[in-house]
Design a protein that fits this description.
Length: 66
């Protein structure tokens, strides 16, 4: 069970970071890489926010003590 919780934490961090990047790209705050199809597309701000929330929940679940 400990390995599963560690995996959830690692995956949670990855999802928070990638979701944050997607959200910032979708809002037009991060314009990198220049050829990305996500730049200034509001739908990617929503997808990124949802992804980051899922990642935060995964990290929280993996961090709980039993």
């Amino acid at each position: 069970m400990r390995a599963l919780r560690l995996l959830a934490q690692v995956l949670g961090v990855a999802l928070v970071l990638s979701g944050g990047l997607w959200a910032l790209q979708g809002l037009g705050l991060v314009m990198w890489p220049a050829e990305s199809f996500m730049l200034a597309e509001r739908q990617w701000a929503l997808y990124g926010t949802i992804t980051a929330i899922i990642g935060a929940l995964l990290f929280w679940w993996g961090s709980r003590r039993r």
